[in-house]
Amino acid sequence: MSKRTFPLLLVAGLTAAALWAANDSFVGEWKLNPSKSSKIIDQMKVESVAGNKYSFDFGGGPETIAADGTDQPGGYGTTLSASVEAPDSWKIVRKKDGRLLLSATWKLSSDGKTLTDDYTEFDPNGSPSNVKYLYKRTAGTSGFAGTWENTTGEIPVFVMKVQPYEGNGLSFIDSSDGVTRNVKFDGKDYPNVGANVPPGSTSSVRRVNEHTLEVTGKVNGKAGTTREIELSSDGKTLTMTLHIPDRAEPIALAFDRQ
Questions:
Q1: Strands laid side by side in the 72-73 sheet
Q2: Phi and psi, residue 208, nearest 5°
Q3: Are 44 and 33 in contact, with CB atoms under 8 Å apart?
Q4: Mean pLDDT to the nearest integer, 193-215
Q5: Does the pLDDT value for residue 228 go beyond 60?
Q6: pLDDT of 112-133, one tens digit each?
Q7: How far is C-alpha 255 from the geometric centre of its chain's CA atoms?
Q8: What does the domain layout of the chain look like in residue ranges?
Q9: What is the pLDDT of residue 13?
Q10: 67-95 b/e with 16+ CB inside 10 Å = b?
Q11: For residues 188 and 179, what is the distance between their CA atoms, to the nearest angstrom?
């Protein structure tokens, strides 16, 4: 084979890979269908550590801070603050690089069995989105310390885009968490990108079969959420099953092709 032939074959191979990615059956826009998806049970844990210090776990691991209203180091490069406004009322605030991400006012019921969460989330432009959740106590006896499960929250409808990535990979662009997962089918971990990406967050992908992909997430090398993505035989429905550490039951999300 001449030296002139090899570059031509290389270009042909790259072109074929790009065409393969563009024609991949997973590529497209997918809109969540809540009626076909699992009910998500949102769990949070609050533990009294010592004095006015508490450990908060919202599903991403424990964060221990003093409940004194000051911004303190939290998880994933954010700051977290907790203000005790009254024995039955707390305010929780999270920021990143000084930008307000969320603000939540918690209110305990008189019997201490339920917690109302007046939750406001802010997009990168500072626009707020408010929703009110109701949690029931599943562990603990009094005060905010205990385990709480959301009983009223609904899954917000969002669109996930799947696009070709660098010829032989795919990009999963998730509008619900502002995270883009760029991956290639080579078994390697690739950094996630986006405004709300935790430091050290990566993803890898493997093709289980023609209709199934498995995307494995990690944070600083530690295994995180695994997403099993399955395409229906007619190519119109995509089901994403999330296996989340420390959760007994997986979450299944159904998407319709747009």
A1: 62-66, 53-57, 43-50, 146-150, 128-139, 114-122, 99-108, 89-96, 79-86, 72-73
A2: -70, -45
A3: no
A4: 90
A5: yes
A6: 999 999 999 888 888 898 888 9
A7: 16
A8: 25-38+156-257, 43-150
A9: 40
A10: beeeebebbbebbbbbeeeeeeebbbbbb
A11: 18
Options 3.40.50.10350, 2.40.128.20, 2.60.40.10, 3.10.450.50; CATH for 25-38+156-257 is 2.40.128.20
Phi, psi of 86 (to 5 degrees): -165, 165
Half-sphere exposure (CA, 13 Å, Cβ side) for 40?
A: 20
Alpha-carbon distance 149 to 134, whole Å? Answer: 8
Helix (H, G, I), strand (E, B) or coil at 12: helix
In 3D space, the residue among 108, 167, 171 whose CA is nearest the CA of residue 143 turns out to be 108
Which residue type does 77 have? G
- For residue 234, give the amino acid letter: D
Note the pLDDT tens digit of each residue in 174-196: 887 778 999 999 999 999 998 76
Residue type, 116: T
Cβ neighbours for 187, distance < 8 A, ≥ 6 positions apart: 204, 206
CATH code given to domain 43-150: 2.40.128
| Backbone Cα Rg of the chain | 22
In DSSP notation, 179-222 reads EEEEEETTS--EE-BSTTPPTTEEEEEEEEETTEEEEEEEETTE
